[in-house]
Structures are given as C-alpha cells and as structure tokens.
C-alpha cells in the first residue's frame, strides 16, 4: 500500500493522529503500515477493537470449562503483562490493580481494553499504533492513558493514534492526518486550522437519513406500571460484591442513563434486566411484569428488548450477511433459522438504509469494520420496535457523524413514544436531556 510509505516518510515527528470515518480503511491501513515498519526491523505494537476481539476468541478456544467441568478462568490479566511491571504505577492509575488475578474473559469491556493497552505500552515496541484507544474508557482512565502515551513518546517511542472522533484528540499530538479509503492526507501540525479541515471532512460525510421505518407500535396497550423493577439487587463474582444493594424502577418512557467507572457494574446491572446475568434469579427482579425465577422463559423477556452491547457484539460470530444480522433481531437469535416474510425483509432493509449501510446488505458481517458492525447491531436492535431499548455503550467505535446519527435516533424514539431507553455511556455529549433518570454506580 503506497500510503504506508507516504506516512513513514512523513513521520519525522513522534506523534501522529490519523482521523478517519467508519469504513475509512483504518484496519487495512494499520496492517500495511505494520508490514512496512517491520520490513525496516521496527518492533510495532497495535491495539484495536479487532485485536481485542481476536484475544477474546483465542480465550474462548482455550477454555477448558466443558472438559474439566470446572470454571476455567483462561489467561489471567497479570499474565498479559511482563512480571517485572506488575507494580507499575500505571496499572493503579488505570484501576486494574485489583483485577490482575481475573481471567481475561471476565474483565469488563473497558478493563479488557485497558489491559491490552498496558500490554503494548510495556512491550518495548518502537512504534505504537492505537485504534480509538479512548473509546470505552472512563474519564479518569482516558486522562491516565493520555499522559502515559505522552510520557512514552519521551522515551523514544513513536505513537500513532487512529481516531474516529475529533473530540478524542489529545493536545500533545504533534501531527494530524486524514484517511478515507484511498485518500490519505498528512495535514501538518495539530492546530485549529487543521482540526477545522478534519471537522469539515467529517461534515461532508453526513448523509441525509432515509425515512423512519414503518412503525405502528405505541405503548398504550402495555398493561404494567413498570417496565423493570429491581429491589436491593446484588451481584457477587468470585466472592466480590460488584455493587452495593441497588434498587431501580423504570416506568414506561422513563428513559434511564447509567454511568460509572470501568468495572463499576453497569453492564452487570443491565444484564440483571435482560436476563443475561445468571444471578437475576437469586435477586428481586421484575421485568415486563415477570418476576424473574417464577417460570417465565428468557424469550418472554427478550422478545420485548432490543439490545446492543459489547457482549452481543463479540459473541455475534455466525458468518452471515448484514441483512440476516438485522433480521435476526426479530427472532432474538444469532443468525436466522426461520422463514422470513417479505414484509420483514423490507423493514430490515429500511433500517439498513437508516444506518447508512443499504449498499452493504449482502456483505458478510465479519467483513465489515468494527464501527460498521456496530451500526448493523443498532439496526438489529431497532428492527422490532422493542418495548425497551437496552444500549450498553452503543456508539463504541462509531465516528463523529455516525454518533450524531444515533443520538438523533434516540431523540426520534423519545418523540414517537413506543420504546423506553436504558443506556450506558462514558461520553458526556451522549448524556442527553431525554434521560430523566440517571443512576451513577460508584466504585469503592
Ligand atoms: N463472569 C464474571 N466473573 C468474574 N468477574 C466478573 C464477571 N463478569 C463481570 N465481572 C467483573 O465485574 C465487574 C463489573 O463488570 P461490568 O462489565 O458490569 O462493568 P462495567 O461498569 O460495565 O465496566 P465498563 O465500563 O468497563 O464496561 C468487573 O470488574 C468485571 O471484571
């Protein structure tokens, strides 16, 4: 790839941020760049959503739980790091010191990401490529990571950030570049002029959304007072209480935002509601009028929920095309195993159009970029006009314009009044006024 040569020629500076939209070719670019740098005998480290997914899939492969009938934690967090670095202050700054004996699969999504970032930071690489390193990290961790990257530059390491949001650009970055497919442009110094150019590049990509897909659902027939009610709920993993007794009531249209540091239990709280946390049965949880553990099936619950989460994303590993992934939202399955009606296909296509991926409907899901996959999963969650939309960091991996598109969806859903939104987000600009109820989970 010629552009990889171009960048190494240009990279006389220690730090470069490459801004790129979803589908802009970051993955291919990073691959070409790594090959090019390795040919020069440089040691290169890479952290990306894709490498995180590969680590997860490797951990699933080596999981011996089924064979030994005991829970196999897999590789412990500490084994990802050099033994002589286990006391490094950065581990504490990223709040990972108490997770070192946890298996990788059990880490929260932010914790997993921070661990892989630490692994690469400690690896002694001469060039470090980080694809959206601040996505899914809480505010304190973003600050700690940013200053760690800045410090590592002073030790002679070159840092290349690949970012999808200008808002994530640290001010210590020296050079800026823009990448969109074959278009690669080194803009020069990190100053307001060049930032403005990038802002315009992103703005040029905003497409007019198609019409809101047909929707006849209203909440009027919903027979219960609450969508969900949790009373004094607690989850304990490996003898550790994840959050102190938590109560929460969500009424119809009471859109609710959950915030808190990485590992504070946000996803776990959501999983008590969706039924994905096994401890929902030992807790006092009522969802859509079903008191959990009293004979209802998980499907009684799931059929009313549209879900986007890191867990769903990393476990969506069936090799089917994009349209099938959207359709699978109608059946709450991974892949589609039922006859699909023409009207359902039509609605699924409308949703693909709405997320800007109409032209990719026949492409295999796993051939899309991480951000594009996320957009498909959002369409999958919305396709059945669910009673409750559970969005656990839905905009992870999305670029500036796609994030705005999804935030507009939320506004539109609020106006149409058929779905109650329950969302987790670390990003301040996603804490919309429509969230009338806000729950902050504190870590001790
Ligand atoms: N199956 C499990 N076994 C052991 N520990 C677990 C398990 N699942 C989650 N945990 C731990 O529980 C804590 C809460 O996890 P959770 O995913 O709910 O955090 P979170 O607030 O959503 O974090 P993030 O912001 O990083 O997504 C984490 O420290 C995680 O390591």
Automatic annotation (TrEMBL):
Keywords from the named record: ATP-binding, Nucleotide-binding, Transport
GO molecular function: ATP binding; ATP hydrolysis activity
Record keyword Nucleotide-binding present: yes
Domain ABC transporter as annotated: residue spans: 228-442
Pfam families referenced in this protein's UniProt entry, alphabetically: ABC_tran
PANTHER family xref list: METAL TRANSPORT SYSTEM ATP-BINDING PROTEIN TM_0124-RELATED (PTHR42734:SF17)
Family: Belongs to the ABC transporter superfamily.
Protein name: Molybdenum ABC transporter ATP-binding protein ModF
